[in-house]
Amino acid sequence: xxxxxxxxxxxxxxxxxxxxxxxxxxxxxxxxxxxxxxxxxxxxxxxxxxxxxxxxxxxxxxxxxxxxxxxxxxxxxxxxxxxxxxxxxxxxxxxxxxxxxxxxxxxxxxxxxxxxxxxxxxxxxxxxxxxxxxxxxxxxxxxxxxxxxxxxxxxxxxxxxxxxxxxxxxxxxxxxxxxxxxxxxxxxxxxxxxxxxxxxxxxxxxxxxxxxxxxxxxxxxxxxxxxxxxxxxxxxxxxxxxxxxxxxxxxxxxxxxxxxxxxxxxxxxxxxxxxxxxxxxxxxxxxxxxxxxxxxxxxxxxxxxxxxxxxxxxxxxxxxxxxxxxxxxxxxxxxxxxxxxxxxxxxxxxxxxxxxxxxxxxxxxxxxxxxxxxxxxxxxxxxxxxxxxxxxxxxxxxxxxxxxxxxxxxxxxxxxxxxxxxxxxxxxxxxxxxxxxxxxxxxxxxxxxxxxxxxxxxxxxxxxxxxxxxxxxxxxxxxxxxxxxxx
Length: 487
Ligand code: HEM
Description:
Keywords: Heme, Hydrogen peroxide, Iron, Metal-binding, Oxidoreductase, Peroxidase. The chain is an alpha+beta fold.
């Protein structure tokens, strides 16, 4: 709806014309207010309820609609209908975000960026809720609340504390790869348009013959990678806190539509068990030499949301929203996420969150037997609300979306199966060694600037030990830089 299209008098929420929106009603001139002034009461009460809980993570973000176009034949690997034909287009909505900051936080900060993509496919919505980093800090969902507590505000000081962040990272050596990534040049993208996206986890694809493949998604920015240095970011965050959100909106407004080239790495299922490291470990990338990135599509963003609250704040993305031909892997992080998001949506937006225009299917309709609840819109009318039924209601298909995965052993609180080259440091060291001398210098400066703020030497020493384990030179230089700053 355009801003000009609203005609007619101002009304109450119930549609009655409003006579005076400037003066509330009083008993006599200069007297107290009256309970019969329902306009005043309605306005104040509505205003008090304008906010819903912000996302517990990724609260600060911006979104846009667009199109995904298939550019290569993916049918040997998946039977997903939206990937079935070269040239086929699917509407998408993409929400970018930072992780730790609250709703009003500045965009230009060192933090991973969320890359949450909803494909409105004819077989239902497929949500790929990824980041701009191919890896993550931890590899088991049970550690996520503790990890995020260290990133967010301390219960006593009310601020993010270097002590908490580094204490957790030092005690969680599996974070070394992602921390190296985050404090390197790509840790502060110049905008949402100038960064890559990743599905990060390993997912299952299955084809029409029932064959299973493990896949990782890559979204390569066609705008080119552009980053900010720490100093540039500090300045921008102060001068233009909404820099990323503004950049995205303005580029779409001027018709400069950002695009990403979409690719996948594909591992035949049989290769997983004996791969050199656990292929479901979210702290590791699959080297391209082992599994090259195969291009499958193009993503374009070309339409801004009309209303940020309705379409961005109330948008919900669920890693458990799969479509036929795509499913989960045994990645222990992903398994936790399959629960966490739907639960967050029920709390944050309500039980009918999936009925909102931005969240509901656009290329098909939802035909569930779920009914009622807060803000139910009555969409099912008089249809029967149970199954099986003999009135021609929607019925189960008997066709699972994904193929079953084999399991072995006993139940128990246990780590993922070990592989020959499982190791928390090798890929962090490889990333460090890949960097130019200048990049290494900036990485050390960025890390040392933050690590030097910790109050205890043992916390700093433990953190440095992880980087030393990744690469002796890395650890040595960081130690010297931290000592120089701490005096
Ligand atoms: C948002 C949980 C790991 C990407 C969220 C939200 C929760 C959550 C509860 C807020 C959802 C909402 O209110 O709508 C978790 C848990 C994790 C985990 C329990 C680990 C076990 C990850 C990982 C990634 C990721 C590994 C990326 C690879 C995102 C993104 C959003 C988000 C992009 C924002 C979605 C949006 O734009 O609405 N996460 N998360 N999370 N998470 Fe995670």
